[in-house]
């Protein structure tokens, strides 16, 4: 939920083929999805992760507005030399545009 935690998740916990997500252009948490060998990440898991990225970002203040969440494999996320902690550069990303779905968010918040 802060720059050191984002760095730890992105560069120490996630492996190169894991999926990394972040709300485009807004401060917020990095979100990761572990990639299982030879298994594609399904759309529902991607939407769950994108919802969490939105919820734990400054975009949450504008919940009625759709926002873009970028996602890519972890090996396409790089530290920026000299930049503040938590700032990264991203290459070869895709974008998903969504609003926070209250029912999905409540389901995610209720799981442990």
Report on this structure.
With 112 residues, the chain is α+β, with helices and mostly antiparallel strands. Helix content is 29%, strand content 23%. It is built from three helices and six strands. The strands form two sheets. Strands 2-1-3-6 form a four-stranded antiparallel sheet, sandwiched between helices. Strands 4-5 form a two-stranded antiparallel sheet. Strand 4 (77-79) and strand 5 (88-90) form a beta hairpin. The protein starts with a helix and ends with a helix.
Essential attributes:
112 residues, alpha+beta, four-stranded antiparallel sheet, two-stranded antiparallel sheet, 3 helices
Q: Report Rg.
A: 13 Å
Gross morphology: globular
Uncertain residue segments: none
Helix count, DSSP H or I runs of 4 or more residues: 3
Strand content is 15-25%
Helix content: 25-40%
Instruction: State the separation between the terminal residues, measured CA to CA.
Output: 17 Å
Report the major sheet: 4 strands, antiparallel
Write the element-wise H/E pattern from the N-terminal end onward: HEEHEEEEH
Oligomeric category: single chain
Strand order of the largest sheet: 2-1-3-6
* Total beta strands: 6
Structural class based on helices, strands and sheet pairing: alpha+beta
How much is the average pLDDT?
Answer: 91
């Amino acid at each position: 939920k802060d720059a050191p935690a984002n760095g730890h998740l992105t560069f120490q916990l996630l492996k190169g083929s894991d999926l990394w997500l972040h709300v485009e252009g807004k401060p917020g948490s990095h979100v990761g999805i572990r990639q299982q060998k030879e298994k594609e990440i399904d759309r529902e898991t991607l939407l769950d992760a994108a919802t969490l990225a939105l919820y734990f970002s400054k975009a949450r203040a504008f919940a009625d507005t759709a926002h873009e969440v970028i996602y890519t494999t972890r090996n396409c996320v790089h530290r920026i030399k000299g930049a503040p902690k938590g700032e990264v550069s991203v290459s070869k990303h895709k974008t998903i545009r969504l609003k926070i779905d209250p029912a999905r968010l409540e389901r995610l918040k209720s799981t442990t």
